[in-house]
Amino acid sequence: MRYSYGKAILITGASSGIGRAAAELFADAGYMVWAGSRHCEESVEQRQNGGEIRSIQMDVCDEGSSRQAVERAVAEGGLGIVLNCAGMGIAGPAEDTFEEAVRAQFEVNYFGTLRVNRLVLPYLRAQGKGLVLVMSSVAGRVPIPYQSHYSSSKYALDAYVEALRMETRPFGIRAALIEPGDTKTGFTAARRMAMPADSPYRQTCEGAIARMAHDEETGVPAMKPALAAFRLAEKENPPVRVTVGAVYKGVMALRKIMPARAFERILAAMYQ
Ligand SMILES: NC(=O)c1ccc[n+]([C@@H]2O[C@H](COP(=O)([O-])OP(=O)(O)OC[C@H]3O[C@@H](n4cnc5c(N)ncnc54)[C@H](OP(=O)(O)O)[C@@H]3O)[C@@H](O)[C@H]2O)c1
User: Is the CB of residue 16 below 6 angstroms from any atom belonging to ligand 1?
Assistant: First the structure.
């Protein structure tokens, strides 16, 4: 076991799914885990190998609670890693998804990640070492119909992390993306449909979302992407991104080599 960035980690979105699985994995390996989410009781859970999970209330859309969580973690043992898992999905057609839903999508997935990292990065810079991990998605490089705004929020994270890596490297900070595909978590039940009742896309959109929900519910367990994050934390020079699972690595390879219109036809056919 290599603790390349020390033994303290802040995980956002840690009350459920991938964030929760990551909290358990890191804590069982001896880490002190600050597990942030909106819906949790403050508590300390002792785990194997001296690790613990300290659940802490934190809304990544709220500056005050995010600042409090980061400052507390730093004051009580320091911080070496931040793993941004807080996220949600809205579904709707690219044309007429309600704008306020699109903004809410970016507020959590993109600006929430930015907010937390902006609070953590000064500490990492001061100590000359640290790791920023972002739970993106395969949808951050392959846009999904009827989840165009979710995909856009993940594409935005992709560009942000690539640039952040170059900017923070001189300060000893590393950053990487994790790209899961369908994963069985609370994400499916939490997804919000956001389109007008009379949308001309309604029927196709509902069919596509039902297909996606099925794929997620029969997807890999949350521990798989959590393990990808855990392995990145052992690396002093992590890659830009890790795609989770052989199937999705194959999808990414196909996307690179196939003509764009041929790839698009296959993708579109999956969600008709
Ligand atoms: N499941 C998949 O198929 C899949 C695939 C690719 C990528 N991902 C990504 O993986 C990440 C984790 O999702 P998941 O699948 O584990 O879903 P999940 O089970 O629904 O977990 C989402 C977590 O985010 C937290 N959260 C939501 N809004 C928040 C906010 N404003 N502030 C703080 N925490 C917030 C939730 O807790 P509270 O409600 O208590 O705050 C929960 O702990 C997301 O970024 C998602 O986009 C998921």
Answer: yes
